[in-house]
Design goal:
CATH topology of the largest domain: TIM Barrel
Distance between the termini: 31 Å
Shape: globular
Helix content: 25-40%
Structural class: alpha/beta
Low-confidence stretches: none
CATH class of the largest domain: Alpha Beta
Largest sheet: 9 strands, mixed
Radius of gyration: 22 Å
Length: 525
């Protein structure tokens, strides 16, 4: 007796091979049969003719660890078919925490949900606290280098002392022992941007002591310095002997379009050398980040309160303006993007500017005014090239990651105009780039969402449909699946994602959320 039988669907199993019509049987939380199950009885049967059944999608690059505290239902992700999220990216994670620098960590966070009380100190304690209440999706946790640095030394703009580095190394070692999957960096964000390559290597070596750990990097530059930044990530992998994941690979700004080809060539060369280097991408030509990333590093020294104080000084504002116009890299933001191509997406204390371009609110002056009023403001930058995106999508060492969060079109998580990737990444790949543009075949696209990231993480029992694998499954209609979220109206769920099963239980059934929370923290074995 099966608990669940999905019959008559085209099963695309996540390995990259084309699908075929067959049935899938589930008992408890495990797939127990794939084949003709017409004679098998089941507690529930889904008739799925004309549908595709795939492994649940694995979001290789997510920031939901913060948002899931506000809403364990993971609305915007589970409705895309996402069943596992890799969180703690870009140097941001909610642990470890130190009493001395707790306020700095709260300022560092781009979003602070009411339920996140920071009662933990270690990553292990955080994982236990998170796992206690359940969630709709499975979670793989990385440890943010920025968070490690904040806990050890706040927003100090210098190299760590020997004692501070040891503090970070011990916290990271404890985290990996507790089940965290590795280290992430955000090298354009203070305080991560204050670190040298040697500091990152010294931490990544801690991860390398355990199999399957990962160094995931929002690299030090995605524009003029893209190639040097990719090379730095590879250097960390080589010297620390750890796997490298180049996060959301892109070439930012028109003067840099076309560099993705050369960046991917560096990845290929590293792989040929025997290094384990891969990347992820989201299917949009706009990026999104914190508004404060417009500022030079020195403006955030000492933390967010110090930044706000500096923004009240006319001389500091003038200095910021000059450095933006004539940066060290020789490529100004105005040349690369332009104020008209930057939209404020989130600013709770300045809701009047949400959805407006910086050219409409006074350019740099307006941006600094917004930051002074709301340091957690975010922006969307329309700065990427479609041809670069297609090249990344089709590259064999690139998988899919949203760079978004689990949001919902109600309450606090429905505020602002966030990047539509939080609602649309995976159905957009299936609808726009598989069906409409035919950039990538269906089986290959699903492999990049399932089997490839599962193999990347060493999750042998997820990301594939076969007997013995965990029953993380998504059922969708290939002729209709599409994203509906836009930059103007981002809080829209996709179409034609009909059923989503996590650990053998329906979370989405007939397109509606069941309220079930069968997800769990997946700990590094």
């Amino acid at each position: 007796m099966l608990d669940l039988k999905i019959e008559g669907a085209t099963v695309v199993d996540g390995t990259g091979t084309p699908g075929g019509r067959t049935d899938v049987g589930v008992r408890d939380e495990t797939i127990v049969a794939v084949g003709d199950l017409s004679r098998e009885s089941a507690g529930r049967t889904v008739h799925a003719a004309g549908r595709v059944v795939a492994p649940g999608f694995i979001d290789m690059h997510s920031h939901s660890d913060w948002r899931l505290w506000a809403n364990r239902r993971a609305e915007s992700k589970i409705r895309q078919g996402v069943t596992t999220e890799v969180v703690g990216n870009c140097g941001f994670s909610p642990a470890p925490v130190s009493d001395e620098h707790l306020d700095d960590l709260k300022g560092f966070a781009l979003y602070l949900p009411r339920g996140m009380d920071f009662r933990w100190r270690s990553v292990g304690q955080y994982l236990d606290a998170f796992d206690a209440d359940g969630t709709a999706v499975n979670v793989v946790q990385l440890v943010g280098h920025g968070t490690l640095r904040v806990a050890a030394m706040g927003f100090a703009r210098r190299e760590p002392t020997a004692g501070e580095l040891t503090t970070m190394q011990r916290a990271l070692a404890d985290a990996v022992e507790a089940g965290a999957w590795g280290l992430s960096t955000g090298l354009i964000y203070a305080p991560g941007s204050y670190a040298t390559t040697a500091e990152i290597v010294a931490l990544a070596r801690i991860c390398a002591r355990r199999r399957r750990t990962l160094y995931a990097s929002h690299i030090r530059g995605e524009g003029a310095t893209l190639l040097d930044a990719v090379a730095e990530a590879i250097t960390v992998g080589r010297e620390a002997e750890v796997s490298v994941q180049v996060s959301h690979i892109k070439a930012a700004g028109r003067p840099n379009w076309g560099k993705v080809t050369r960046a991917l060539a560096l990845v290929d060369a590293a792989a040929a050398e025997g290094l384990d280097v891969m990347a992820d991408v989201y299917p949009y030509t706009a990026s999104s980040t914190s508004l404060r990333s417009l500022l030079p590093d020195w403006a955030l020294e000492g933390g967010i309160s110090s930044m706000v104080e500096r923004l009240g000084d006319p001389a500091v504002r003038e200095r910021i303006g000059k450095e933006l116009e004539q940066p060290v890299t020789g490529q100004s933001l105005l040349d690369r993007v332009g104020w008209e191509n930057i939209m404020i997406s989130y600013s709770p204390r300045r809701k009047d500017v949400e959805g407006k371009r910086l050219s409409e609110v006074g350019g740099l002056t307006g941006a600094l005014d917004v930051l002074a009023a709301e340091p957690r403001s975010a922006m969307i930058l329309f700065q990427l090239d479609e041809r670069d995106l297609r090249e990344a999508l089709t590259h064999p060492r690139v998988m899919i990651g949203s760079d978004g969060s689990s949001l919902a079109p109600y309450g606090e998580l429905g505020e602002g105009k966030p990047h539509p990737r939080s609602y649309g990444t995976f159905p957009r790949v299936l609808g726009e780039y598989v069906r409409e543009q035919r950039v990538i075949p269906l089986a290959q696209a699903i492999h990049k969402m399932t089997g490839l990231p599962a193999r990347r993480l060493g999750l042998a029992d997820r990301g594939v449909i076969r007997p013995g694998a965990k029953a993380d499954l998504v059922v969708f209609e290939p002729r209709r699946v599409r994203d509906r979220a836009t930059y103007e109206a981002p809080h829209r769920y996709p179409e034609a994602i009909e059923h989503v099963v996590v650990n053998g239980r329906f979370v989405i059934r007939d397109g509606e959320h069941t309220g079930s929370l069968p997800g769990r923290i997946l700990r590094l074995p």
